[in-house]
Amino acid sequence: KRRALFAEFFVTCLKRLKTEFPELKIGGPALSSLNLDYFNALLDACKEAGVAPDFISWHYYGANPDAIIRAAEKARKLCDAFGFTKCELIINEWHYLGSYSWSGLRNTDPKVIEKVWEGPASHNGIDSSCFTLSTLAQLQTSEYDQAYFYGCRHKGAWGYKNELNKKYKIWYALKLFGSIMKACPVMCASSGNKTVSTLAAKSADGKTGWLLVSDYKGKSDTLELDVKGVRGIVSATLLDHERNNDKVDVEFDGGRLTLRKKLPGSAAFLVKFEL
Hints:
Helices cover 33% and strands 28% of the residues. It is of the alpha+beta class and 275 residues long.
């Protein structure tokens, strides 16, 4: 009953707002997850009323980058089935949430606090950082039209720094990705497998190729990748539990790139090539 009442409310607001402001994109409703039953009822009500949402939106908090990408694929199929082929897909909040879950973030027990805020699996630690980089890499070729990382306050649980102004590990991950976005306007084809996600791009001047390799909770000590169309290594950077975008040496021979992790578990490399 609540679902039906909300669908009716949504349709009423959508029709009125689109009539009053036809130049604006109107949609929603920023559900806490991709609840297909809920969206099915919502889109069914829209179709019956003869009105189309410009976008639908939802959140994701969890620890599986692939789940974020698959959600968009499911949503695309659902929207298309109702004839809303132009309906945009927006994940308007997403962030890593480990095994400690929401109750852990709000817990005052010192042992729980230590688990949430210290170590590789912490809220903004290396697992969170590689989850974020893996998600960002996959988002570039996903069905999403927009995606919003939560959150970007300067301090606090969802920010870049703690209350003592110390940078979280996630700060270095976002800086790493930001450097690619700033310098590289051209995306290149790349693919990963299992725990590894990749993003390849070319610099604005066409002289360097950049390859981001994010190994999220991977158990292998060595990552091997085939890289084509490059001449040699310019530099390589490593982000892991102990290193914060530090320069490292990597091996590149006969088109085969070998990345050796210095610690087990999650790690990310940014390798620059001469083109």
